[in-house]
Amino acid sequence: MLEFLIIIGIIAVLIWFLYANIIRKRNKAHEAFSGIDVQLKKRHDLIPNILTIAKRFMEHEKELLTEITRLRAAAIDTGPDKATERFSLEAALQGQMGKLMVAVENYPELKSDATMLNAQRTYSEVEAHISAARRFYNSAVNALNNAVQIWPSSTIARMIGIDAMPLFEVSETERAPVAAGDFL
Amino acid sequence: MTLVFDEIHPHEKGFGAFFADEIAPILDDVESTRIEACKIFNQRLLICVLAAIPTAAALFVFSSIFFDSDVSDVTMGTLAIAIVGAVWWVNKPRKDFLIAFKHRILRPVANFLSFHFWPDGRDFCTGFGETGILHDHDEREFEDAFAGEHLGVDLNFEEVELINVSRDSKGRKRRTTVFDGIAATIQMNKRFNGHTIVKEDRGKIGNWLIDSFNKMEAVALEDPRFEDRFEVYSNDQVEARYLLTPAFMERLYAVSQAFDDAKLRACFRDDRLYLLIPYRSDLFEAASLSKTVLDTDGLRKVLGQIESLRGIIDVLKLNERLGL
Prior knowledge:
Helix content of chain B: 40-55%
Oligomer: heterodimer
Order of helices and strands of chain A: HHHHHHH
Strand order of the largest sheet of chain B: 1-2-3-4-9-8-5-7-6
Number of helices of chain B: 7
Radius of gyration of chain B: 25 Å
Largest interface: A-B, 16 and 14 residues
Strand content of chain B: 15-25%
């Protein structure tokens, strides 16, 4: 009888460890997802500054500047419950900002302006942090998905209703090779 | 005979002219000093061999025959102290010459490369206290410290040996070297919010044991070759990945390869990159008592070693403002 209780106890402890491990990994994935949000907010805060500087010099890029302003507002207004739409808008915003940075090269005065240089440097840092946040998210989701898909923790995951989460992936347009002609 | 330094490698560019102006004129004098030191070394060695050791041996035999074991132990202790003293006395001319060489020759060479140089070291490891990469140790020996800049980046490095002192079951002191190599500090162009360290991988069980007691979290990275070799810990997962991009991981791996596949340790903290690079060979030793200083091979070797350390900045691209 005692041996039986000990075995039951050991199994219960093991099950608890597996359960706690899955919960921990899920929370880590959520934390990483929020981490991306934090970095994206930094980008949103920086963009008006860059647009203000650019507007003074870039008379022929009104369409581009307007589109960036629209995308930024749309991304901010899209709630965290619409993650896919949000990331799609952020990807589009990133693409337009890339075009803006390339267009700056056509305006020598703007290119050499100290505040613009500083803003570009800061933007570059922010983009690097966004990339790092995405890598953290993918790492956390990978760990969660391994726990959810590999037995015996997969059984526990099914019982408590925790599913695999999607990895952050670039869109097909971002995977396509860059056409230099679009920028020159 | 006019001494000439042939510039063979790219990093030696300009050194030939400096050598001709500043080093060659004093080398004859340094060589005379070496010959004199060598003579004194040989004399002292001969004295020890001919006089001291047989005398001590006779004393030992005499006391073990005519006295009990306690006195014999005292004689043994006296003999040991005498031998240690003899070794120190014999080696003194050699050590004095090597130190003088470093002051007279290596210091100007370091200045040519825009470095300050201290042959006795500066104990740069005192700045490593909070990094989490310094091996536990009881004593520290250091020498050959350099401080300067390369490509606008401040760089300090020196040779350091970290030693653990323990006592065995009989109470005898035992000294074990836990690290022997280079300690380097590089000033970065920005301040870090977090604390990220890179250490050698200890295998699954070793890493698990370390993780259990570590306040920082392990950071899982994408480069399998880097992951096999190193283990990364940080209190900021995003910043750790911001620092350790795939390109930077490749470069850090290249630094490890440049130093004979060294299991280096790194720490990003405040505004500095701290590096510990284990390296078995003695570095920055351009001279030897038994070899003429008129042979420039020693200097060439030291130039190469300094270039390898400056090259860390090149390889890691720490002078560029993109990202880091």
